[in-house]
Amino acid sequence: MSKYDDLKKRCYEANMQLPELQLIVYTFGNVSVVDRAQNVFAIKPSGVPYAQLSPTDIVIVDFENQIIEGSLRPSSDTKTHAYLYKSWQGIESICHTHSTFAVAWSQAQRDIPILGTTHADHLITDVPCTEPMKDEDIKGDYEHMTGKQIVEYFERHDLSPTETEMILIANHGPFTWGASHEKAVYNSKILEELAHMAYLTEQINPEAKRLKDSLIQKHYERKHGKDAYYGQ
Amino acid sequence: MSKYDDLKKRCYEANMQLPELQLIVYTFGNVSVVDRAQNVFAIKPSGVPYAQLSPTDIVIVDFENQIIEGSLRPSSDTKTHAYLYKSWQGIESICHTHSTFAVAWSQAQRDIPILGTTHADHLITDVPCTEPMKDEDIKGDYEHMTGKQIVEYFERHDLSPTETEMILIANHGPFTWGASHEKAVYNSKILEELAHMAYLTEQINPEAKRLKDSLIQKHYERKHGKDAYYGQ
Amino acid sequence: MSKYDDLKKRCYEANMQLPELQLIVYTFGNVSVVDRAQNVFAIKPSGVPYAQLSPTDIVIVDFENQIIEGSLRPSSDTKTHAYLYKSWQGIESICHTHSTFAVAWSQAQRDIPILGTTHADHLITDVPCTEPMKDEDIKGDYEHMTGKQIVEYFERHDLSPTETEMILIANHGPFTWGASHEKAVYNSKILEELAHMAYLTEQINPEAKRLKDSLIQKHYERKHGKDAYYGQ
Amino acid sequence: MSKYDDLKKRCYEANMQLPELQLIVYTFGNVSVVDRAQNVFAIKPSGVPYAQLSPTDIVIVDFENQIIEGSLRPSSDTKTHAYLYKSWQGIESICHTHSTFAVAWSQAQRDIPILGTTHADHLITDVPCTEPMKDEDIKGDYEHMTGKQIVEYFERHDLSPTETEMILIANHGPFTWGASHEKAVYNSKILEELAHMAYLTEQINPEAKRLKDSLIQKHYERKHGKDAYYGQ
């Protein structure tokens, strides 16, 4: 028994969603869930196959990347998660995958343009893609710098992490987050679908235009505005 | 017990087909079924996950968008369904999805050209795609205007809703319908397949030509003409 | 009991392979199996969903398209099958699908070029695609003329139906055949895979070259030549 | 009972992974596992369907391609496996498939460029693709020459088979290998995923650039370097 049992269980369940939603092959992904009261987060151990994962394998880490509980090494991306939790109070869970279409846009080093209402139902901006990281940052504390790069990108572009809940890391892949572990994982699945649709749209019409502003506002607000009427 | 139990059950079963046919992720779709004698239709509640949906959750709505029975909020697209039922007496069920290939053509703002007999087996026109909606219509009664836009498109282009049972809404996605809930859902699946095939055809041959008229007529008539010989 | 029970059973099993191999949606395909001694063939009834199909539904037809046994209407493509059985003594079963990639090449009106050894393991020619049918043939005895078109194409291009066991009908889709019902269905699956691979190859390298003759011969002969050493 | 029972069992299990990982249709692939102490390897029999395969069907062959144990004919690619085992002491298992995206790059006769960290997590070079084989080699001892071609390619390009554990044979398909049968099969799955991602990346951005060296080094070393911190 541990006071983190519930946190570990939620983290475990979120991670187990990744193979079920076909967002990963093998161990290419990780989900973390934060406990804001304790200033710690639970994260998948590194390189453990999903079929062998159990809730007790989940590692508890604090925002300075110290292991608080757990006998396994945490995900190699742990420092990126820590940096985001520390910087952004509004997020409760982070999900990282190497899902095929999202990775393809990351490798293409392109933002995913907002082309339709499926996109606008979830975010009112393009899905941002970072610039390639500088050599000195890569050679240094790489995963920490990845977190820093994300946060600085949001500041520089005046984006809000509670409105745009996803980013592509150039040449790497997507990070998504949300107010719950269900939402963080959901955003990874949605992103993959948006990445697939945008790719096809450009193939069908290379001149396809960005969604007009009025439609962006309309769809986002029917799901997220003060007079939202989507859902229960 | 309610006099709408059978209607709700058919609506429920039609909605449950969408994940099974891989036409949706999460809650991105809805099917309605009309009762012409009662002037009401049954529709999926908004944002309820399919795994949790039960026949009693289905909402009964009239053509003025008033809830007649049900404790949940109906689909956010309800007014579009109502407008179509009111305008077109010949249709009994409507299906809306965000299926990947159909959405891509919608975002590309292109009609899906009739390129082969798989298409002609089902409709003798291109799959139409509307123009982007005007800003004032988007800001106003958006879902109502979407219905109006569909009906006016059919009138302007001299299309018959009992012959062409599908349309793409620019930047949004497909609506399909039919003389039964099985047919409405079937049309969504067929549309997705036609959208996939047409996309591939243009990739393989950018100069691919529209199907010749004689073949359009032949295939449509062997399934739907007065001397039809397809099926039992 | 009927003397055709075994023939019907094999035909039923071959047809049931189509949804299992993901070669069709709904009822978009049919397999027939011939009995050379009786000069009849068994074929799927038209438009019957696979989930409801049983061996007793299979229809027995002769080469003049007369129903010999069965209460259901045979596939609308029956006359095409009959024409091929009558013209080509060496084939025992025919399979027709609307599989996605094979249809895309048909709609593109292009032969599938032989680009690799996966292709050469099965046939030493491109997968041929017919010319669009003449208007008078479409308006006339269409399915009969489709069979005639296939046979004449093979004669005109000096192709052997026991070596090249597949063809694409322009704007329609594939027919495959073979010395057994297993082989006819197998060829439809292989064709779909070849169509997918060839499509991708041209996307990756628009200048991709046809396989060199020495490699075509080598791979075909290790599977089919007199010194074949593939298989048991 | 045979002293090769354990070797056969591992070979059987590795082969059974191929359909499960969706790397093959029908019998289009084979995995072998070597016993370095005995100078033999176990390999799949040729053309036996996976559903009928059992551990006792696995054939034991020595490096001169002599059958040591087994009543079935070994894979037609056996001589390629033998050549690689003989030339490269560091490898323990070899996997050959006709997986769709890897074959497409093979048919396109292109190396798969290293475009992202998913690739760099596994190898620091492009995935090499051989030149088309010379006619005299094809006509001669073809499968032996395929092995020779691979080994000579690695020598000529100064590649290490324990670092770059995969190659594409022009117009044919992939061979992968590794220090265990799990790793050899794993590499085939990874290769297919890399081939898919690289294809999409070039479609999304035809000017997509090769991954910068600092990022290649970083990702490879966090998994494989002396201070690796990926995995347990």
UniProtKB/TrEMBL annotation, chains A, B, C, D:
A Pfam match is Aldolase_II
Q: Which cofactor does it need?
A: Zn(2+)
Glycoprotein keyword on record: no
What Gene3D superfamilies would the database entry show?
Class II aldolase/adducin N-terminal domain
Keyword annotations for this protein, in alphabetical order, are: Isomerase, Metal-binding, Zinc
Which transformation does this protein catalyse, written as a reaction? Answer: L-ribulose 5-phosphate = D-xylulose 5-phosphate
Coiled-coil zones = none
Return the PANTHER family for the record: FUCULOSE PHOSPHATE ALDOLASE, L-RIBULOSE-5-PHOSPHATE 4-EPIMERASE SGBE
Give the family, as the similarity comment puts it. Belongs to the aldolase class II family. AraD/FucA subfamily.
The protein's name: L-ribulose-5-phosphate 4-epimerase
